[in-house]
Structures are given as C-alpha cells and as structure tokens.
Amino acid sequence: MNEKILENLNNPADVKALDEASLEKLCSEIRGVLVDTVASTGGHLASNLGTVELTVALHKSFNSPEDKIIWDVGHQAYTHKLLTGRYADFSTLRKEGGISGFVRPDESVHDSFYEGHAGVSISQAAGIAAANAVKGSKNFSVAVIGDGSFGNGMAYEALNHAGSTKTRLIVILNDNEMSISENVGAMARYLAAVRAKPEYYRFKAGTERTLNRIPVVGKSLSHHLFKLKTTLKNIIYSSSFFEDLGFKYIGPIDGHNIARLCEAMDSAKMVERPVVIHINTLKGRGYDFAETSPEKFHGISKFDINTGEPLSSGDCYSTRFGKALCEFAAKDKRICAITAAMALGTGLDGFAKAYPERFFDVGIAEEHAVTFASGLSSAGMLPVFAVYSTFLQRCADQLIHDGALQRQKMIIAVDRAGFVGEDGETHQGLFDVALLQSMPNTTVYSPATYAELNNALYNAFYKDENLVVIRYPRGSMPEFAEAEESNGGEFKTVGNGKTAIVTYGRLYFNALKAAEMLREKGVDVRIIKLEKIKPMPIGAVESALECENVFFFEEGMRSGGVAEKFGCALLESGFGGKYSVTAVDGEFVAHASVARLMEKYSMDAAGMAGKIEKEVAI
Description:
Elements: H1 20-41, H2 46-49, H3 52-61, E1 68-71, H4 78-83, H5 121-135, E2 141-146, H6 153-162, E3 169-175, H7 186-196, H8 199-213, H9 218-237, H10 241-244, E4 248-254, H11 258-268, E5 275-280, H12 288-292, H13 317-331, E6 335-339, H14 349-354, E7 359-361, H15 366-378, E8 382-388, H16 389-392, H17 396-404, E9 410-415, H18 432-437, E10 442-445, H19 450-462, E11 467-471, E12 491-494, E13 499-504, H20 507-519, E14 525-530, E15 532-534, H21 538-545, E16 549-557, H22 562-572, E17 578-584, H23 594-600, H24 605-615
Parallel strand pairs: 1-2, 2-3, 3-5, 4-5, 6-7, 6-8, 8-9, 9-11, 10-11, 13-14, 13-16, 16-17
Antiparallel strand pairs: 10-15, 12-14
C-alpha cells in the first residue's frame, strides 16, 4: 500500500499508464526526493521544484526519445532524470562518477544535448524540427525555456527564424517570473501583461471551435472574424508577440495542473505550425524555504532541510570582490556595476542595494553586457561587469570588437575561474585565459589572495588603460593565507632554489605546501607567483632563467595558456634547462569536487611534489 510509484517507473512510457490520482502522488514523491537529495549533494533546487508537473506532463504527452525534449540550461531537468531510468542512481547526483546536474547525451538517450548555458534550446529544437520535416518524420521537437532565458538574444533570433517555418516545433515558455535574480526588462513586463488576462485566450479558442462547427459558413466566418479579433487583440494587448512571429500561442496555463498541461500539449500537436505554450509556475514549489527565497535555492550547496540554511558559509572571493567594489564606489561616483542576472552569485547584491542608480542587471545577456559597458565607458563611467568564467565565453566578439579594439576603460571581473567542481563540463572556468591571451590592449590579473584582489581592482581603476580583466576562483582563500600581503607588484618570488614552480591564482597555496614537502626531501624550490598574467611580467621570466628546472602549473587549458607563453619567453631568452607544463590538455573536465579535480590533474600539493620528484635528482 505504501509502495512508491517512482520506484516502479523504468522509462517515460510507464508515466502514460498512470491515472490522475497516481500522477499527483508521483509529483509529491518526486519533490521529496529532490529536497532530500539536493540537501546532501547540493545543486539546483528551486528551478526543479517548479517544473515537476511540467515534466510529468511532457512525458505523458510526448514519446521520448522519438520526440525530442530540449531543456534550456538543463539545470531544471532533475525530474526528467528521475522519469528516464535514473532514479536508482539519483543519490549520486553531482558526485564524481555519478549522474550530472545537467542533461548530457552520454548519460541517457532521453538527453539530446549537453546543456548548461541559457537561450540555446529553441535553436536546437528548431534544427531538429527542420530535420524531421526534411525526412518526413512526424515526431515532435519540444524546447523548454524559462522566462529568464527569454531575455537572451539567441532566443529571439531562433523565434524569428522558426516562426517562418512549417515544422512540428513546440516551445514551452516556463514563466516563473525569475531567472536567478528577479527578471528585468521589456519581455518580463510583456509576460506580466499577458498573465493578467488569460480570459481572452480561453474565449478566443472557444469561439474558433464553435464557429468551425457551423456547416458551410463556419470556417469562412471564422476567417473573416480573424481580422476583427486581431484588431481587438491589438487594442487590448498591443498584439501578441508570438503570433506576430508566426507561432500559434496557447496560454497562459497553470504549470502545476497536469490535466491542463496535457490538454495544452495535445492541442499543440494538432497545429500545423510552430506553437508556444505559455505556462505559469512557482519556483521552489513544495518546499517553503525555496518558495520564499528562490534565488537562494537556485544553486545551493549542502543544506539543513529543517532550517534551509547552508551547511557551510562565510567569506569567499565573490563576497570579498563585492565588498571591495562597494568601498571603491563610495569614493568614486564613476564606478558602476553590471550583472547578467547573477547579482547574488557574483557578490553584487550589496552594491545593488547601496548604489541602485549605478547598478545594472541586463538579464541573461552577457554579450549585451560587454557592449553596454563599452557605452558606459565612452560616456566617462568606470564600468565593472562581473560574470562567471563559463559565461564569459559567450562574449568573445564583444570583448574583442567592443572592448579591446575601442580602447575603452572597462573592467571584467571573472568569477568561478578554474575548476568549479560539481557543475561539470559546461561550467568549468578553464577557457577564459586562452581566450584573453591573444587580445591586444588587454591586461589580465589572477590574484591569489583577497589583498591582491583589492590591489588588482585599484590598478584597474587608476593605473591600467583599456580593457582590464580580473579573474578569481570559486570558494574561499585558505585561512593560513590571511597573513599574505600584496606587494603591489606584477609577480612575487618565494625562495632561491634552482628548481622553480611557476603558477598563478589559488594554485600558489598548493605550491607553498609542495615546496615544504620537497624541502624535506632535499629539493630547494623557488616559487614564482604571477599576479599579472597578461602582459607577461619580464621579471618573472628573468627569475626563471636562473633555474635549472622550471615547472609551470596552470588551472586552465594548456593550449593557448600562460604556460605556453611563459615557455616561449624562456626559449627566446636562451633557457637551457628543463621546462614542464601541467595543465588541462585537450579535454572537457567532468563533474567532481574541486579537491578531487586538483588531485586528478596533479595540481594539488602532492601532485606538484610528485611531478617534480620524478624529474629532479634527489
């Protein structure tokens, strides 16, 4: 009698056999599993609690994997994982060797793409729908996208193109009035206006059905009344954005009512053109703490279920960056801050409260954020755009064309640089250095300590010219490093040995421990820590030239990284010793804890010491 429904679901087809009461019970079971699991593993909770009924309805109405369900970002697909044969392994969520916190094709045939960034689902689904049309397939392609992601320019590009096609594309707009921070912009206001009057759309659908039943004249009358309805709609709504683009619009629908969701999806399958189904959901539904503070539970570390409080907290690079920026802004009214819907994650929530007139949340639109900063700079402001390393990848053209080329003073604060851990391949911050190394008119800092972070900000504001990038990792500085002071320079040397460890960022702390381990074995080590990684500090190269063995450890991609450039500088300067590089080489890094990744890639203290022991005679 107490047997769980979820335990007996082996694939999505099993969902179709469940009656309404069983579906409701299933949703309750899923919410319990989500809260229990994320409390112990960390992950994205609020977004997943809000899409439980939606996911159940999708698998009841469509036939996965023949019908493709594309999850934008993919962080809200935990229920999808539970319904597609991964319930037994769900306790391994985000753990090394376990299931990912995002969708990924190598994990299940029901996952169509690796997902982790916003705004891509409609383009992907439109491509599949177009391919189906070419092949004569009757299968459907469904994109599930949140209203926050709708602010991304790529989503508009996809809508503009897809609306002109005659394909079996269905776009489900999950409207929860949130992205990570509260949604901003014209699209948010438009959706709010549509939400306000759902009666119109119910009346429209009912009228069309009634007219079409009238023999002979029904369809003709419906056609002639269309223009009148459009005129009325324009007056009431200033037109339907989606229908003007060529989509059939259905909604708004209660996103927590499975029967109504299935009805809307079944109706959409009968339309011979692309369809938008607009649903309303509550982020965090079913867990009071997440409902009250959905932004806090968007991506959360392990937490206490009874209190909703994280099991670990305190200062980190993000919060220290936010505090330092506020201190500078208090003295300089030119300083302003920009976020792409990540105020809390990037430590800018304090700045937003203290200086709201100088704080700009542009929505999930990183490309726009960079070019917007260029405009601010040209008008005499000192803009700082705080963004995760993984999302900086989206701004490559803007950084080059609207940043470096324009010679405007802009500061890019790159958060989550290096390994990020459990979020996996789509979120590791390993590509920003290689991207930035080739850009002219660009200065890049990679501070190891909070003091160096402050110093880099000062230099960026008042010493350096043009585009300045400051990159720092996820997490906190080690306690033993509190006494570390910034010398205000471009690099720092510790020790005078003939064997050198060259590195930057938080790997410096591992290098210090490795040096201690090696000294105990009779190897005297010189540590060369780079605080500025572009342009390359000449003094750092000169110091390495004095050594017989140089080992460069880089928490980033080997190809195009600082280590390659440093080695080239040594070679051009006549270095005759041994040079070794340890970095991520030609692969994407899977999810695991940061500590485990450091160990796996020989960037922890033991790994550094072990590499050097193999090469240096002891």
